[in-house]
Design a protein that fits this description.
The protein is mainly α and 259 residues long. The chain has 14 helices and no strands.
Amino acid sequence: SASRNRAYSALVTCVAASSNASTQTRCAGRSSSLPASSPITNHPSGIRTIPGSTKPCTAGDLESARKDFELAIETDKEFADAYFARGALARREGDAKKALAEWVQALKLDPNLYIARHDLAWALYELGYPDRAVKQLTKALRGNPSFHLPYSLLGVIFAEQGDGERALKAYSKALYMRPDFSFAAVGRGLVHLKMGKQTLAFKDLDQAVNDARGDWTPLFNRGEVYHRLGKGAEALADFKAALALNINEVRIDQTSTDN
């Protein structure tokens, strides 16, 4: 319907251009106007990262998206994807609790909406419920074993819990499903680094940089690792390259490049 098309168009403009890569995956089959880039979400497993966007959203864009989602739900109260989209918008605005409620409703209407289950798991994890998040991810993978995103989030959770071996297996599974998934490559690299395997760590980090050409976040991540290891020149080079790709969003602490 026209309302559904408008809702997806708004979602593409305002949410898929944000840090929620999984939302972009969900909408890829719904619109031909998705940006070519694939922004990567924050990586909470040891290195500070900043979500990038090749197309910033204005307040007006977000309000337009919100109105379109409301219209879609008014037209069809069982339109699960509209609740999913509204949850993605809430998460983009930093309201994890609201996002969680929207995704719970989406899954009530469509239990096989696996991307919503994955994003629900993200919200649970961010709210401090990793065990509940793992249960949701397990359900998502039971329904769609080839879905790469749940494996990556499992890697994040296991890494934070100090279970390096399980984290490596989860990240490796995500990369097996999607070899160019730079988020998982960065995550696996950080786990290798924590385990003292620098060669493997930089192999993964280099892979993430090469696979995400044009995206500054893997460069920033690798720069952070170089800085942590006291390799100032290498860190500075990566920070400058990241800054050149996204001058409006990268914020480099000058003290980190002076040392």
